[in-house]
Amino acid sequence: MKALKINSGTQKIEEVTIKSWKDIAPEIGNGCEIFTAPIELENMDTLYADDEGLYNSFEGGFMMEDWSYPIVGNGLLVGTNDEGESVNVKTTKEELEKMIIWVSKADAQKHASQF
């Protein structure tokens, strides 16, 4: 199924293909072994991120408007249906590019040090 990778290293959105939930952590990359779903968009697209991002290597992070803290590392946006199954992402690459606010590695580390 089609998904959108938020690549904080290159600060670009990439269209990727995953076959199942088992592909989520490897697609997030940077040593991700455990992922979390911190947000679901109104269209039921789900954002997945590295739950241990601060402990793994990362080049930066990202935020969306009205967020109080950044996501460290990469993210993966995957569509979800009414039964909770993964489906093709509904958000377009262009729509997601307009939502993302890129955060530098230094700013992400600065935020993390506050906790």
Please tell me about this protein's structure.
This protein is globular. The model has no long low-confidence stretch (mean pLDDT 91). The chain has helices spanning 24-28, 93-99, 105-112; strands at residues 2-7, 12-17, 35-40, 46-50, 60-64, 71-72, 75-80, 86-87, 100-104. Strands 1, 2, 3, 4, 7 and 8 form a six-stranded antiparallel β-sheet that branches. It has one domain (2-112). Strand 5 and strand 6 (71-72) form a beta hairpin. With 115 residues, the protein is α+β, with helices and mostly antiparallel strands. The chain has three helices and nine strands; from the N terminus they run ββαββββββαβα.
Cα Rg: 13 Å
Q: Return the string of H and E elements.
A: EEHEEEEEEHEH
Unreliable parts: none
> What's the quaternary structure here?
single chain
Q: Give the termini separation.
A: 37 Å
Shape: globular
Estimated helix fraction: 10-25%
Mean pLDDT: 91
Largest sheet: 6 strands, antiparallel
Total individual domains: 1
Strand content is 35-45%
Helix and strand composition category:
alpha+beta
Provide a count of the helices: 3
* Strand segment tally: 9
